[in-house]
Specification:
Blueprint (H helix, E strand, L loop, with lengths): L6 E6 L4 H9 L9 E5 L16 H19 L4 E6 L2 E3 L3 H7 L1 H6 L4 E3 L3 E5 L7 E2 L1 E5 L3 E5 H10 L7 H10 L5 E4 L4 E3 L7
Parallel strand pairs: 1-2, 1-3, 5-10
Antiparallel strand pairs: 3-9, 4-11, 5-9, 6-8, 7-10
Length: about 190
Amino acid sequence: MPPIPDKTVCITLARRADRWGRFLGGLGDWPFGPVEKFVAFDGRKCRPPKSWLATRGAWAGAMSHLAVVREALDNGLDSLLVLEDDAEPARDLLARWKGLADRLTEHAWDWLYLGGQIKGYLGSPIGPLIRPFRCIRAHAYIVKRSAMQAIVADAPTWTEYVDHQYGRMHARGELDVLCVQPWLFHQRNETSDM
């Protein structure tokens, strides 16, 4: 089995107990550690800076992702699994995660997407792993300490949706980013309401 991230968090709004419940109810055979609930910043209560180009909800989402990463760094963690409450695990998650053990130890990586949307490829697939030019969506990913530090350093430049900011970071080629194919987590077909 691949190494389990030091911590698993799920970002969810305090006012959306229904989404939190649906998320927990869909976990099934879970290969990771306990899921810690992170109460998201609420776009209804946030005021983004004037430099922010997207919605208040997008600001709240970005600040929520940044907060969980900062907390992990502050606590000395080496890896973090970040999920959003609309992430749905594949039915065969446990078996497929176990099957990634050799691949994940054979290849260097800083950031591993378990769900998302790939925008361009770098090289050929490595079995079930792909090196993307960029990956967007932020509902299921693992970051190692190196990627967490890069996220915190990059955050002052952010002006829009967190996944687009992440994609720009990937495109610079400073981090080793991998995507699991097919995805281990899909995004529920709902509108994000942060």
